[in-house]
Amino acid sequence: MSDLPPCPQCGSTLSYEDGAMLVCPECAHEWSPAGVGANTEQSGVVDANGTPLVDGDAVTVIKDLKIKGSSQVVKVGTKVKNIRLVDGDHNIDCRIDGVGAMKLKSEFVKKA
């Protein structure tokens, strides 16, 4: 059996490594093996209200966001699950239902 920690979301012991992240095959939750607390201190990414964000959080969009090169708009109140924090100007990498993969700025979301 593996010595990887169980999933913090559902408790499954079937977790596996995918690059630098750990993944649960039962609930699809992804987390950093360093732990949630360590990731908060490293990233320094906060939402519009100043709440620290970590990988795997769910956020809500607080402003209509136009999508470059498209006529689509991400509406206020759209909930985005299982975000991934990345370096750069757009520091949230996510998938939005009906739109697809996107990068968002943390100043336009709040933690759900």
TrEMBL record:
Classification via InterPro entries: YjdM, YjdM_C, YjdM_N
Residue ranges constituting the Protein YjdM C-terminal domain according to the UniProt record: 45-112
Alphabetical list of Pfam families matching this protein: YjdM, Zn_Ribbon_YjdM
Protein YjdM N-terminal domain: residues covered: 4-32
Gene3D superfamilies documented for this protein: 2.20.25.10, SH3 Domains (2.30.30.40)
Top-rank taxon: Bacteria
Family: Belongs to the YjdM family.
UniProt protein name: Zinc ribbon domain-containing protein YjdM
Organism lineage string: Bacteria, Pseudomonadati, Pseudomonadota, Alphaproteobacteria, Parvularculales
